[in-house]
Amino acid sequence: MKTDLQTISWDNSNIYQNFQDPKINQDIKKINDAISYLKTKIIFFENLVPQLETKKISELEESIPLARECYRLILDTRIMIYTLSTYANTAASVNSLNYDAKNLSGKTQQLSANIGKVAKPLDLFLLRAPQAYLDNFLNDETVKEANFYLNYAKKEQDFLLSVSEEVLLEGHGVDGYHAWGNLYKEISGAMKVTVEGQQLGLADASNILFGDDAVKRQTAYRAINEAWNQSAISSAAVLNALSGWRLENNRSRSKKTELHYLDKSCHTQKITRETLNTLMQTTYEQRHIGQDALKLMAQEMKMETLGPWDILAPYPAKITHKIPFPEAMKMICNAFETFNPDLAKFAQMMVDKKWIDATPSENRASGAHCTGFASAREPRVFITYEGSMKNIITLAHEIGHAYHSWVMRDMKLMETSYSSCLAETASIFAETLVRDYLLQNAKTTEDKKAILWQEIESAATFLVNIPARFEFEKQMLELRKTKTISVPEFKELNKKAWQTWYEDSLTEYNEMFWASKMHFSLSYISFYNYPYLFGYLFSLGIYAKKDEYGDKFKSLYIDILRDTGTMTAEDLIKKYFNEDISKKDFWLKSIKVVEKAVNQFKALQ
After folding, report:
1. What is the pTM of this model?
2. What is the spatial distance between Cα 483 and Cα 122, in angstroms, rounded to a whole number?
């Protein structure tokens, strides 16, 4: 697919030359050899788990050297698996029909399950062992990086199953819940959408929703929904299977106390249920700000009310200027320079090293994301760049993610494993830097409105759309407890969730959003929605401190990023700003930042 925007494609040849690179099979052999070796050693801990209550600490401590050896090998093996998986996924992003990529991705999923099964007895042993044993085990450089992870995971030890049950669940993952997630990827990757007589891939059709042609947006929206309607039964089967699996898993673990799906999600996100409840309640009380943003967008587009096909529309300028990729990167680097020259240099390095893939391609995955190679500690950014202001903000967002991992590259890998809630800290910060820079340098009212448009669009997305996703998923799980959900019922659940949050700010509700939004069908995580709201407001709360702390903030910000993998969100904000995010005040101050931007746009109308 041709482009005149001078975009770039990434170069991953320093990882593997191509899918025929002999190093791929060599690494797979190393992984399988490690798994075979671990099987002979970890059985010792499998046999030891039932004896934990009768063994003395002194008897248990004799096993520490072996436990450390096995744990270190598990970590190193997983790094190789992550690297293979990332290589496959980067290729699949560019071409979702790439057979070699799908083949390798399938192998890495199986390898991941295999190492998970082998590692599970040791994990269970460490989590059930006395604290004194765990402390002694961690008192060594080879495994010290697991300190936060193991101590935090130990809080959920009441929900652990037996060794055989945990191993069984791990083994069934590939052909169980991950298979349903893979099916969704196959459906969306192969989906064809007919727009104005032209057959397009889903990514290309979805990109029309970001375009300035209102009629074509609606046409594309209807066509996309029609395509999903054709796959509605399959999409419903995916969601029913994933939801049913998770509920049954939680039920099986609720022997001592109930494991609620939100408690499970909060633990994964390293926040408390109280914090989540406060976040959602505060946002609900302030939802009118997001709704006001939608109404301002409608006024600017000379519409009475927006349709769901309009919520991602660009600023309706009279002259639509597509910004070439090099020009977009210059804007981003200049914006980053105002805060930290190192951030600007990093962004340019991403281009120079071809760590960004931005060139439109056939069968390309939709959306944008940041990933990275665990072995080389190198980030990668994926985006389909088409020259819009929205693209520039998204590009800045993904480079922010990349910078987050970059400032942690000297740390041990387990210390860099931050939650999705904290993952948005650097990305939202980066895009806010770019918006502020562009706004300050805007020469006309029209230019200012074009920049603030991104702000009000974000306000609508994060304060209304994201919470509606959360509401839908929560109600879906509640209904799934009692029955298999039909396609009409999915549509009704979706409608009620949108009605709760959007109210009268749209002409209609997107009845197929439950199917078209990939996040609901991810097998490896549930509730991949509120972390975006959390990260948005959390990052804005931190960004608001920038001027208050002055020159100290630059290093403070990096310290915050480096701590995201080894602290809960509550502890992180308490450490650096002595605030309590389980209370409304922090979130209200962040929402005030959003409201200020909405009011700025309103004042220019």
Report:
1. 0.87
2. 37
**pLDDT tens-place string over residues 284-304:** 999 999 999 999 999 999 999
Distance CA 363, CA 376 (A): 28
Nearest CA among 271, 149, 274 for reference residue 571: 271
Please give the Cα distance from 308 to 276 (Å, whole number): 27
506: which DSSP letter? B
Amino acid making up residue 355: W
Distance CA 500, CA 104 (A): 43
* Nearest to 331, CA basis, from 239, 409, 395, 265: 395
Q: What is the DSSP string of 48-101?
A: HGGGTTTS-HHHHGGGHHHHHHHHHHHHHHHHHHHHHHHHHHHHHHH-TT-HHH
Q: Nearest 5°: CA angle at 173, between 23 and 16?
A: 15
**Which domains are assigned to the chain?**
22-175 (1.20.140.70)
Assigned token pair, 471: 């509401």
Handedness of CA 500, 504, 509, 513 (dihedral sign): negative
Would you call 399 helix, strand, or coil by DSSP?
helix
Instruction: Categorize the per-residue pLDDT at 480 as very low, low, confident or very high, splitting at 50, 70 and 90.
Output: very high
Q: What's at 30, amino acid-wise?
A: K
